[in-house]
Specification:
Blueprint: H1 14-51, H2 56-89, H3 97-120
Helix pairs in contact: 1-2, 2-3
Length: 122
């Protein structure tokens, strides 16, 4: 049984389609990073003024979202490189669980800190 992640043998366009799918994935990493950047700006600069609260906790949280954006850009670039190499070799390149776990834990921590800040700074 053929591996579903690898292009089917004998299909000349499979590598091209797989490469384009990898490119769309890279663009998704970028879109997510841009969203985190907007979140960083909103939380760190706009929220304290809009809520009329001390800015320090929001600036710290905004920096956390900015670090998330930076990590997404770096991870997305490295992932794109790995996928291109895998396609060239005709191999699968599953997403490493450590990366999934890192972003899950980091995103969860930021979400929890945001909820705590919203609940206790109002």
């Amino acid at each position: 049984m053929a591996d579903e992640r690898s292009p089917p043998p004998g299909d000349p366009g499979a590598a091209n389609r797989t490469g384009m799918a990898a490119e769309r994935t890279w663009l998704a990493w970028w879109r997510t990073a841009l969203g985190a950047t907007a979140g960083a700006l909103g939380v760190g600069r706009l929220a304290p003024d809009a809520l009329n609260v001390p800015s320090a906790p929001y600036v710290i949280l905004g920096c956390g979202y900015a670090l998330l954006a930076l990590a997404l850009l770096i991870a997305g670039g490295l992932r794109q490189r790995d996928l291109v190499r895998a396609v060239q070799r005709g191999e699968a390149a599953p997403l490493p669980f450590v990366l999934v776990a890192g972003f899950t834990l980091g995103g969860s921590a930021l979400a929890i800190m945001t909820v705590v800040l919203v609940l206790f700074q109002s």
